[in-house]
Specification:
By secondary structure, the protein is an alpha+beta fold. The chain contains 5 helices and 8 strands. Helix 4 packs antiparallel against helix 5.
């Protein structure tokens, strides 16, 4: 993601892939404009054993030529905001089958123009989370470039995000 940001690549998405070399459910492909440009994931334990690799190992491969070509664009800068931002955390449980990319897209769409930052900071599976579910926690940043946000402004948008996540099957934790 940092490489895509530096190269001005827009619309990069992660999608889960299954490859024999990778641990099931722990590999993703980076796609830009429908074209795969990279893959990363945890090496399958049997492959690790074959090569005598102790502990967990990870592999990443990026096609930098494709990324550089996709990233041709002009960098634009914004001035420092005159008004303060508001940060809120949101934690919820969700079926493991729902990709994090879909969750983030739902959050961004529901947040509208006041939502300027979305950061996943915690993923947890295990007790007391039911089997087949995982807990995700996001830090959300709200900002209006025209005025100081009120508590009511933030709550209206934050509640809209909660409702949109419930449409994905999310159970809110906080």
């Amino acid at each position: 993601e940092a490489i895509c940001d530096r190269l001005l690549v827009q619309g990069a998405q992660w999608r889960q892939v299954k490859r024999p070399v990778f641990h099931p459910g722990r590999a993703a492909e980076l796609v830009v404009g429908g074209v795969p440009v990279g893959i990363l994931g945890e090496i399958h334990p049997t492959v690790q054993e074959e090569f005598g690799i102790p502990g967990r190992a990870y592999l990443a491969e990026l096609n930098l030529d494709l990324l550089i070509t996709a990233g041709r664009g002009d960098r634009t800068y914004k001035g420092i905001p005159r008004y303060p931002s508001v940060q809120r955390d949101l934690a919820f449980t969700l079926p493991e089958s729902v990709p994090a990319a879909e969750v983030e897209a739902t959050i961004r769409q529901a947040g509208g123009s006041l939502l300027v930052g979305v950061e996943l900071f915690d993923v947890y599976a295990g007790q007391p989370i039911p089997e087949g579910q995982r807990s995700l926690a996001y830090s959300l940043t709200y900002l209006d470039p025209e005025k100081t946000l009120t508590e009511a402004d933030v709550e209206r948008v934050h509640n809209g995000i909660r409702q949109a996540l419930q449409g994905l099957g999310a159970g809110l934790r906080s």
